[in-house]
Every structure is written in C-alpha cells, then in structure tokens.
C-alpha cells in the first residue's frame, strides 16, 4: 500500500498489503500518536540552465545539471528554441525527450516527456518541468493522475497499480500523505490519514467481515483485547 512516486522522474512504485491481522498482546511501550500534518510542497522552481545544441545554433532551458549537448528538432529565434519541437538531453538514467511548443527556449504549457526507462508524462509544463495537472504512466503500467509541482506529484491524485490496487487522496512530494482511500484488488480497504505512505493517525481498515478502526502509527494498529495488525509493514515491526 505504501505509495512512493519519484520526484524527478515522476516514477510510481507501489507495494502490497502487509501481514494478516494477528491476535497478540499489544506493546504497551509504544503509544500510537496523532499524525503530523503533511509538509507543504516547495514552491520555488528547481535550478536549471540554458544548454546549447551540438552545433551551438540554439539554446534550451533544461532543469537540473546537464553535462552534454541538447538535441532539438524545432526552430530557433534569437538563439533560443522557438515553436513546436522535441528537446532531448542526457541524464543519469538515460536520455530524456520533452515535446511541446517552446517559447524563449523553455516549454510552458501542454507537452509530453518520455524517459529512458519507458515512463511517459503528459500534461502541463512550466520552465520545461512537469508543473500542473498531468498523467504519468510508468513502464510497468502503473498510472498517476493529478497535479504536479516542479516534477513531483503533489495534491489530490489517483493511482492505479498493475496488480489491480488503487489509491485516491492526498499526495505530498510523491508519497501518500493526508486523507486518502487505498483499495486492494481483493477488496480490502483502508480509509483515513496517511503520513509518508503509511496509515498514520485516525483510519479504518476493512478486510472481509473484520473492521479495525482507530488510531494507527506508521502502519501499525493496536486494538482492544490485544488485537494487533500490520498494514504495509512486517508484523514484527509493530511491537
């Protein structure tokens, strides 16, 4: 269930449900607490620079640090990329290709980005970065739909996983954070607060005819009568 979405590449990584509920004595040395409020996503744009094409005829604004030349298929005006085209530049993970209507060397508005790992983003751009509403589909078919802030999923989003699981709710810097609903392919369901991708704070987990409702601590629930359950993490960690 833990939701992790890479910030720069906008990758989605999913997990599975933790161990089944176990009836054991609760650990009284650990008191569940209220979930901390999610951190506010950064509003400042990332560092970047104008990078020239191999022939030096045109420059393009590229976020981050790029050590090689940029390939550009469109036109130029005053030495800057202008109009529709595709800019491709090297990165640590391989080539990144960004397509859209460039102005003054940068992509601002609708566009798409293809990563070397097979992932693809379509949506809004600002300063050649995914920023605004968009959709990212990873190579394995995992899909995130919702707002992006400087390349990272932030806001109320929806995730569908290749195994049939799905999540809808708050996302902060690529992690499930705040109120949300996670539904497993087998019908199990958690609804409530999350912190950094874990059930944390007030929440309700339903598995078949069993209901566990109350305060959670990073995926661990301690109920009345010695009931103990772990969601997302190994049961041994809920002590």
Automatic annotation (TrEMBL):
<dbReference type="InterPro" id="IPR003409">
    <property type="entry name" value="MORN"/>
</dbReference>
<feature type="region of interest" description="Disordered">
    <location>
        <begin position="22"/>
        <end position="48"/>
    </location>
</feature>
<feature type="compositionally biased region" description="Pro residues">
    <location>
        <begin position="35"/>
        <end position="44"/>
    </location>
</feature>
<dbReference type="Pfam" id="PF02493">
    <property type="entry name" value="MORN"/>
</dbReference>
<keyword id="KW-0677">Repeat</keyword>
<keyword id="KW-0732">Signal</keyword>
<protein>
    <recommendedName>
        <fullName>MORN repeat-containing protein</fullName>
    </recommendedName>
</protein>
<feature type="signal peptide">
    <location>
        <begin position="1"/>
        <end position="22"/>
    </location>
</feature>
